[in-house]
Amino acid sequence: MKDLTATLRLQFHRDFTLDDATALVDYFAELGISHIYASPLLTARPGSMHGYDVIDPTRINPELGGEPALQRLVEALRAKGMGLILDIVSNHMAVGGSGNAWWLDVLEWGRRSPYAQFFDIEWNSPDPLLEGQLLVPFLGSDYGEALQQGTVKLRLDIDNGALYAEHYEHRFPITPPSYGEVLRAADNPQLRTLAQHFDALKTEPAPYQTARLLRADLAEQLQDASTRQALEQALSCYDSTTDDGFKRLHGLLERQHYRLASWRTAGDDINWRRFFDINELGGLRVERPVVFEETHAKIFELIADGLVDGLRIDHIDGLADPRGYCRRLRRRVDRLNAGRPQDAAQDHVPIYVEKILAGGERLHDDWGVDGTTGYEFMNQVSLLQHDPAGESLLCSLWSETSGRTTDFMEEARQARQLVLTGPLAGDFETVAQALLQVARGDVMTRDITLGAIRRALLELIIHFPVYRTYIAAPGRRKADEPFFQQALEGAKTTLSEADWPLLDHLQLWLGGESLRQLPRSLRKIRRYACTRFQQLTSPAAAKAVEDTACYRSGILLSRNDVGFDPQHFSAPLQAFHDECLQRAEHFPRNMLTTATHDHKRGEDTRARIAVISERAEWFAGKVRRWREMTASQIQQLDDGAAPSPADELMLFQILLGSWPLDLRSEDEEAMQQYCTRILQWQEKALREAKLRTTWSDPNSDYEGACRQHIEYLLLAAEGAPIRDEIAAAAAELAPAGALNSLVQSLLRMTTPGVPDLYQGAEYWDFSLVDPDNRRPVDFVARQQSVGGTAALEELLQSWHDGRIKQAVIRRTLQLRRRHPRLFTEGRYLPLAVSGEKAEQLLAFARELEGEWLLVVVPRLAASLLGDSEVPSIPPQRWGNTRIALPEALDGSEFERLFDGTTVSSQQASLEVARVLDGLSVAVLHTSMTANGESQQ
User: Fold this and answer.
1) Which of 112, 389, 401, 602 could join 765 via S-S bond, C-beta 3.0 to 4.6 A?
2) CB 330 within 8 A of CB 303
């Protein structure tokens, strides 16, 4: 196998299977990809479009072709020297429905199920109605109403001799010790006899195996038609639409190991950990050895057999102990790697973690992983491409238009309070109750009340600056201490002074002192409180920032994305260099991405919107004019204008950023398709903002008015004037946006780290948030163009078709494959730039053992492009701008990667006008002799 030099992320589902990917391997190899980076492949809920809702971790998803198809894909990859990185879901499984056998077993047997320890369940609930029971919030209405309406039905699984309750797609097993009462209701002596045996299970210490035999016996008896009819007649007595049936079914359900409830109760009453606030995804306790082994058995088998060559860990911060998990995983995969088949031999199994890093936060370097999935790199490139000069004007425009704050952190704090007192209220209460037990365990703190704990804990989490801290037996890690102190100081600004002393206690209880120093009686509850606190701050941050504040604040939407810090609008050149140097030192193989299956805007949509920061005054004028043109179309509802000024301003940004390059307003079919995409984005954006409508309580009047507004803009004949203006404005931004896109692609492929390309993004990617960013990819067009011989000038002139982006990516990735060590081990050297346009140029070198690579790209280039209709800056506009080179390169000759021409350095410097003549991004490398030595 060849070195890991570049990955390509593929989203697998029933409409894009493993065999579909196999047919594309030759294309991916030609593009320069070394490893396919696959979305989760284990068996997910039927019809899953993403694979993160795993129901059976022991086998490859049959909808994707199963393991035979995986073997065919790997064989094709091996033929090209390529590998496979697999995304795995360690934090949760899909629950509810009828497909997860482990979950169904827990419902059936409660704590006695061997799988009860797999899920993160709090069996000892402070709610007496939930003691020893699992809250199952899957009913579409209140419990009593569901029974009255007959939507909860008692069913019989004849083949397996099993009884279960059914509510639409959900299956709730009846525990075998309560079968007796149902069987006795049947007019059949054999069933009544069997009922006595089922009754005996109530007192049997280990009823699991006995119940299996009894159900097999029941299944056998049900093969007799008269017996089956008798039992089905008995089931009719549990028809809850009748008074007697209601009482019988309710009584039976009350004796189960779960309590059925409306989905709306989950936020407040949930007694098991979910993935964020999604009822259908149950948290796993992978820190337990048996759970780790059972959930990873198939993954380990795939690694040992040489089918999987690397791992990506989804939502690492959801785990109780990310560090412990990663270190255990590293030890195991290293042992497995040593025994792989010879044709799959590799030196190292890369492990990447999906981790959101806040400003100033670093991935801990003792986890044994190769880095993150690269969200922070998206942010670093974005900061580089935003003009600080536009911030003030855009903030003013947002403030005067929306009436909302320009302080993103204030939006985030409000959103945190919303989610902690709403969808995550049950998880918050779990932590508060645990801290109450901590307080009660010490005579010096036993008078602290639950109310006081709730107040202080809420403000602490609201002001938390990172997703989570990492607390171990010795206490909170030193690197995390500044973030915790920042949260404490923030809490004091909003908390009554009378509650400040409690913050000191929280500081100690939540990792401020070593657990080892505590009495054994306090150690367990303190550890539990710390763990649940850490598992709460992460989803609170994600729900508040990514899924709420990013849809409420619209100063410039190119700064609102997964892993971004929207509080910061831009950053200087040196900040980007510093991040590259830091990454080269600590995580030189960190994944680098600019587009993912989770992004809110495609990489090229973001790149085009970023240009607005350079043309803020122009944009403000456009917005004011367009709002005047649409004023008569704004509806006035009881709760305000529809759409609101804020929502309309964000819509204008989305249209400017995502307007397809060749979309013509007179093309009715294409406009309808585009309108459908924008409507889909709008529904998600409005509901995620949670201001005028929500997922749980949609405001049909407001959503309808917003829908009509988009249809007016994009489809109605009356909207043609503004539609044409928006299209023209998007076309004005497009060349600079395309140049931004080429820059970010090149930086992703040449700075320290491993570049990750998202499916289809080798052409322009003007997608929006999912599911728009997971639309089918036209790989046929990409296959046809990848080997093209068109000259650079031709590609530039026809840049709308995306071939220029594909060519830049292909040529750079092929260079990486020819010189892998230069990119993975070569040092990173920022290069000084002088002259009149110095601040609009980024230059750096990569060097290893005398081999040199120079990368030169523009930034904030809208003014340099002027009214050019192609993403190429006229060379003369660089004036006297020069790049200083190390003395060792004085007089060196460099080959330009994209056109094969050469340039020479003079007086240890390069003239930018010569370097960026034609294509306005450049990769220069020292010419190589046949034996691999550089020619100086």
Assistant:
1) 602
2) no
| pLDDT for 522 | 86
> Do 543 and 439 fall into the same domain?
yes
Give the H/E segment covering residue 903: strand 902-904
The domain of 495 spans 407-552
Half-sphere exposure of 678 (CA within 13 A, CB side): 29
* HSE-up of residue 459 (Cα within 13 Å, Cβ side): 23
Comparing 400-414, 511-525, 542-556, 737-751, the range with the smallest average pLDDT is 511-525
In a domain, residue 204? The reply is yes
pTM (predicted TM-score): 0.96
Nearest residue to 356 (alpha-carbon basis) of 544, 593, 579, 563: 563
Residue 896, beta-bridge partner list = 924
**Which CATH number do you get for residue 184?**
3.30.1590.10
Residue 572 CA to residue 839 CA, distance in Å, equals 9
Report the CATH number that the domain containing residue 47 is assigned in CATH. 3.20.20.80
* 307 CB-near residues (< 8 Å, 6+ apart): 70, 71, 74, 84, 344
State CA 54 to chain mean position distance: 16
Largest CA distance in the chain: 104
Query: Tokens standing for 316?
Result: 């690492």
Q: Which residues contact 33 (CB under 8 A, 6 or more apart)?
A: 6, 7, 8, 82, 757, 813
Which whole number is the average pLDDT over 511-515? 90
By C-alpha distance, which of 4, 94, 111, 18 is closest to 56?
94
Point out the domain boundary residue: 552, 587, 612.
552
Over the stretch 798-818, which tens digit does the pLDDT of each residue have? 999 999 999 999 999 999 999
Written as six digits, the tokens of 458 are 């809420």
User: Which amino acid is located at 206 in the chain?
Assistant: A
